[in-house]
């Protein structure tokens, strides 16, 4: 090991990206244990204010880091600590789904995403806070940039932990906007893949027609690496010089709910990208997409209420009033006919959606209405993600803006289904021009 390099880096190991950690650990310049200890030190310093973690066992994690350092196993995530949202099963850490109903629940096996991360040489650092059953009732997490504000949700702990440099990678989930919104609020990259790409075995299902894993990191390169680890394929590096994309600026019918300062940030970004050499076109979605939020509501609530029949029948008082009076109430009132009508409409939108792009590689849109709102009783407006989630396309929020209070505001990039790597390349180029 290069001791000098290790000492030089020791003060900022927790700030490294996953790709930097892999390079340094593979070269023998740092150890996995040193990285883990740096992350744990950051957590000890900041966790009382941020509250990103639901479960941590420092001694256990340090012992596992030493095992990696002393073993011969190598892989594309070697030495990288990662956090996992606490609706995802883990064999050696409790999984409580953000609900007192499951206090002390210990699964017998790892979810697929954890198993693949460990197989690749990564290290599960701990379980991050989720809202109740990945829904609306908030957990304890605060925004790392302003503790009086929400971190977003439902992947609140995952976004806050990465945004505060407690861990380089984390997994959340998304049924509406549960990865993109908190990533925007917490100043990170957040990615929702093409629906169905990443396996959800071992993840507590909310709405199987919409649920995906969501990846949160501090670079596009880390997102691309983690995605391919979770696909179980050999990671391929992104191009060193990404191609200049053709960009569609897409306000959508939700533009009036976007804060005026966010509107201006996006409009200025579109102009800056034109000046940098990109072709930027105005894209107007067809009017029928205005119905998609209603379709999403009925699909997600109908499926959620059926998925949680056992909890509803046996632990009604253990469910928050907000969830009982919101998604569960909607789901129980939704007829099967309305569900099928909504599902069929969503499928038609998916089939037609590619035509909106024309010759654009990606669309530029709002990640959230603006900065994280003041208060921690709500996780923010979910509307800006509803269209993209329902039509199953890959999206990424990139941390390129600051709002009027100096807090992060993301820009959302949207690609066609199965164009995830094109999304990454476009995000690389756009991020470099706007920062």
Give the topology.
Layout: H1 3-9, H2 18-26, H3 32-50, E1 53-56, H4 58-70, E2 81-85, H5 112-119, E3 123-128, H6 156-163, E4 169-174, H7 180-185, E5 189-192, E6 212-217, H8 220-231, E7 246-250, H9 260-275, E8 279-283, H10 292-307, H11 309-314, H12 321-333, H13 336-357, E9 362-366, H14 383-390, E10 395-402, E11 408-414, H15 420-434
Parallel strand pairs: 2-3, 2-4, 7-8, 7-9
Antiparallel strand pairs: 1-3, 4-6, 5-6, 5-10, 9-11, 10-11
Name the helix and strand elements from N-terminus to C-terminus, one letter apiece.
HHHEHEHEHEHEEHEHEHHHHEHEEH
Rg of Cα set = 21 Å
CATH C-level name of the domain at 3-231: Alpha Beta
* Class by alpha and beta content: alpha/beta
Which sheet architecture does the biggest sheet show?
11 strands, mixed
CATH architecture of the domain at 3-231: Alpha-Beta Complex
Give the termini separation.
Answer: 35 Å
User: What is the assigned CATH homologous superfamily of the domain at 3-231?
Assistant: Amidase signature (AS) domain
By DSSP, the count of extended strands is 11
**Strand fraction:** 5-15%
Helix content: 40-55%
Shape: globular
| Low-confidence spans | 1-7
CATH fold-type name of the domain at 3-231: Amidase signature (AS) enzymes
Major β-sheet strand ordering: 1-3-2-4-6-5-10-11-9-7-8
């Amino acid at each position: 090991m290069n001791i000098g390099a290790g000492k030089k880096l020791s003060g900022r190991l927790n700030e490294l990206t996953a790709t930097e950690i892999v390079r340094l650990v593979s070269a023998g310049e740092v150890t996995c244990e040193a990285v883990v200890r740096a992350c744990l030190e950051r957590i000890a310093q900041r966790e009382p204010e941020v509250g990103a973690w639901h479960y941590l066992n420092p001694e256990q994690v340090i012992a596992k880091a030493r095992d990696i350092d002393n073993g011969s196993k190598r892989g594309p995530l070697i030495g990288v600590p990662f956090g996992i949202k606490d609706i995802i099963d883990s064999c050696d850490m409790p999984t409580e789904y953000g609900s007192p109903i499951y206090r002390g629940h210990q699964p017998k096996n790892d979810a697929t995403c954890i198993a693949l991360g460990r197989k690749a040489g990564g290290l599960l650092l701990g379980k991050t806070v989720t809202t109740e059953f990945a829904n609306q009732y908030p957990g304890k997490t605060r925004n790392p940039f302003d503790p009086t504000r929400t971190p977003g949700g439902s992947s609140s702990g995952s976004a806050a932990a990465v945004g505060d440099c407690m861990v380089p990678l984390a997994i959340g989930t998304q049924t509406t906007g549960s990865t993109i919104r908190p990533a925007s609020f917490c100043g990170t990259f957040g990615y929702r893949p093409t629906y169905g790409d990443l396996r959800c075995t071992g993840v507590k299902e909310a709405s199987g027609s919409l649920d995906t894993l969501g990846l949160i990191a501090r670079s596009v390169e880390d997102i691309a690496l983690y995605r391919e680890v979770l696909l179980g394929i050999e990671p391929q590096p992104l191009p060193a010089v990404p191609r200049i994309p053709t960009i569609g600026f897409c306000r959508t019918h939700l533009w009036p709910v976007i804060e005026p300062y966010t509107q201006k940030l996006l409009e200025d970004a579109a102009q800056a990208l034109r000046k940098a050499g990109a072709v930027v076109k105005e894209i107007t979605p067809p009017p029928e997409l205005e119905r998609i939020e209603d379709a999403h509501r009925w699909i997600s609530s109908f499926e959620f209420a059926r998925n949680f029949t056992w909890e509803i029948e046996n632990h009604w008082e253990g469910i928050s009033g907000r969830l009982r009076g919101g998604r569960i109430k909607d789901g129980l009132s939704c007829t099967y006919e309305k569900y099928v009508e909504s599902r069929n409409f969503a499928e038609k939108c998916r089939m037609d959606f590619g035509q909106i792009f024309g010759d654009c590689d990606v669309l530029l849109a709002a990640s959230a209405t603006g900065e994280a709102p003041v208060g921690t009783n709500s996780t923010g407006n979910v509307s800006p993600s509803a269209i993209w989630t329902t039509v199953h396309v890959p999206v990424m929020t990139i941390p390129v803006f600051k709002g009027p209070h100096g807090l992060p505001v993301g820009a959302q990039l949207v690609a066609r289904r199965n164009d995830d790597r094109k999304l990454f390349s476009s995000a690389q180029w756009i991020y470099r021009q706007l920062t």
